[in-house]
Amino acid sequence: xxxxxxxxxxxxxxxxxxxxxxxxxxxxxxxxxxxxxxxxxxxxxxxxxxxxxxxxxxxxxxxxxxxxxxxxxxxxxxxxxxxxxxxxxxxxxxxxxxxxxxxxxxxxxxxxxxxxxx
Length: 118
What we know:
The chain is α+β, with helices and mostly antiparallel strands. The protein has helices at about 20-25, 55-65, 70-85; strands spanning about 5-15, 25-35, 90-100, 110-115. The chain contains 3 helices and 4 strands, in the order E-H-E-H-H-E-E. A 4-stranded antiparallel β-sheet has the order 1-2-3-4, covered by helices on one side.
């Protein structure tokens, strides 16, 4: 399987169950990987023979900003369904981290990971 990975895409967005998360937002970090439908040995240095990771990253960022979810689990599931449909991908995996969540415990992050085969 040929994989393309996008690592640590930082997005400021408004997801969460608490009113302050919805009002003030917070920083998220997204790792995303997908299988390329093309054999890397046949790409011949031509972007048209693969799926542009910049376009995928732009779509992820736009989805994060233009949609709101209470739960990271729901966000991850909906995001993967959207990306699978938009780019006709067969395998996708996402990890979404809420950086420094605004809770009383001193946590670096909270993370949800989901993968799907279409």
